UniProtKB/TrEMBL annotation:
UniProt-recorded name of the protein: Lipoprotein
Organism domain of life: Bacteria
PROSITE patterns attached to this UniProt entry: PROKAR_LIPOPROTEIN
Originating species: Pseudomonas versuta
Length: 116
């Protein structure tokens, strides 16, 4: 059963591009007191135990983090961090946002880094 769910997740999420992921509704939209660099550093550190290193690039008034899938280098999530007065605005977009059994490590890391 677990292998079937994993295979289904890979098939459903394996072909998503950054553009495809960004066109979905955000699965999380929050504000943090941390600046974009500090939030991104925390997020990368939290994800390092479960995923390969994400790609970090400048985006608008902050940073964009592209998180790879667990088994491939294809993107599974895009996290936009924009600077605002006194901190950051964070939006998390996930490729399998409508799948209730998707891995929770991205959401857990994003939540941990809000104030942690």
């Amino acid at each position: 059963m677990k292998r079937g769910v994993l295979l289904a997740m890979l098939v459903l999420g394996g072909c998503a591009t950054v553009t495809d992921i960004e066109q979905t509704l955000p699965t999380m939209s929050v504000i943090s007191g941390k600046k974009p660099d500090a939030y991104a550093q925390c997020l990368v550190q939290q994800l390092s135990s479960t995923r390969r290193a994400p790609q970090i690039e400048p985006h608008k008034e902050g940073l964009r983090i592209i998180v790879p899938q667990k088994l491939t280098s294809n993107p599974t999530a895009v996290i936009d961090i924009e600077e605002r007065s006194g901190g950051s605005s964070i939006k998390v977009y996930e490729s399998m946002s409508n799948v209730p059994v998707r891995p929770g490590d991205i959401r857990k890391a994003a939540t941990h880094c809000i104030s942690g």
